């Protein structure tokens, strides 16, 4: 289905839901203030559904915006949004019966920073999509790019293209790619410890502790975040390397078994930190040790809220053995 | 434990923070004393209600504040005073150890084990092993808070 047909269907369905009173609010995307930007949009009136759009720049995870709202809500959701919804339902943060999921298949979102880089940071004044290509207007001359070349990092390794939960399906099912596994994690793990440390420190050096990654994350909803605690102050507010590192380490641990790898944090990061460098390690471990992929099955409990008597123990110290054999790489 | 300037490795002794659960491992450390088992004086023990009480942040904070090694010990599986706190903690520790080593903390700085209340000898052996391994690695620098 063409993008324009998807937009039309989304608008029609949203208008029907609002007009019939089935929902009080529709959360979707509207055109942002610049080309290559789509902003979350909240529509509570059937006349306002014309604002809704759907394109390759709808990267924000809308599951972020459902918590704490009253009434029934419809959400225009791609696969990773629905995976986050599944996790939030599991954690009793959302009620499945209070939401209507308008599911849209996804072919991956485009990284606008990559587009700007390829086009040499030229001011892009217009963008259109056709046949898997982006048609850009930059400095008056048109440029055509294949979408595949400028997909977000998280979308390139994504293995879930279709909504996991869905009430109203829009468009045909997208072909599901083969699960690419954790090649990137294994390659990184094969490096010597000193090299890994240097690379992660270089990545963390770019972090300015603006907390955008946390604020945009659908799974970061603690009323009091450890990063904001002043007593005890677990991490400093500024950018000293120890504080930055521990902020990201603890965030990765808090997201272990819950992170749906939507990549919203990486897209929100103003300095382009590769946050997946830590989060992917946790995803790989959770999959390998506990056989769990977040957001795929509402009935399976979260891995860290449960246990199995046969969990791996080879990482633990047995003084008679004299050494542990390490865990996971 | 050392904070501030890098200590010279000559004559240096590691500072190891040990988080011990109240019901088994802390009592195990006690019985090591009662049984007169010798173990290195490098550990600083922090008593916690259960291994499940240990937030990964306790461990990361210990490294940040200058610990050279961290030891965590709880009840053997099946012996937990709160039934399953140690088993829930075990899952968390698998991930924490993997993440810290992924981020470049040397293998051998972070240790987990089970020690029961009667295993004074085992506690001494654990501390001995951990101290030897951490001493061989030298002072920790990876996660130390550096003020700028």
**Low-confidence segments of chain A, ≥5 residues, pLDDT <50?**
322-329
**Radius of gyration computed on alpha carbons of chain B:** 15 Å
Terminal-residue CA separation of chain B? 22 Å
The level 1 CATH classification of chain B is Alpha Beta
Percent of residues in beta strands of chain B: 15-25%
Fraction of residues in H or I helices of chain B: 25-40%
Number of strands of chain B: 4
Largest sheet, spatial ordering of strands of chain B: 2-1-3-4
What Rg of chain A, in angstroms, do the CA atoms define? 21 Å
Question: What does this 3D model show about the protein?
Answer:
- The complex is a heterodimer of chains A (329) and B (148).
- With 329 residues, chain A is an alpha/beta fold.
- Helices cover 30% and strands 14% of the residues of chain A.
- Chain A has helices spanning 3-19, 79-90, 112-118, 153-156, 183-189, 193-205, 212-216, 241-255, 264-268, 276-290; strands spanning 25-31, 38-43, 52-53, 73-77, 99-103, 124-130, 133-138, 141-146, 168-169.
- In chain A, helix 2 (79-90) links the parallel strand 4 and strand 5 (99-103).
- Chain A is globular and about 70 Å long.
- By secondary structure, chain B is an alpha/beta fold.
- Chain B has one domain (16-137): Rossmann fold (3-Layer(aba) Sandwich).
- Chain B has helices at 25-34, 56-64, 85-102, 120-137, and strands at 16-21, 43-48, 69-74, 110-114.
- In chain B, strands 2-1-3-4 form a 4-stranded parallel beta sheet, sandwiched between helices.
- In chain B, helix 1 (25-34) packs across helix 4 (120-137).
- Chain B is globular, with a radius of gyration of 15 Å.
- Chain B starts with 15 loop residues before the first strand and ends in an 11-residue tail after the last helix.
- The model of chain B is unreliable at 1-5 (pLDDT under 50).
- At the A-B interface, helix 6, helix 8 and helix 10 of A face helix 2, helix 3, strand 4 and helix 4 of B.
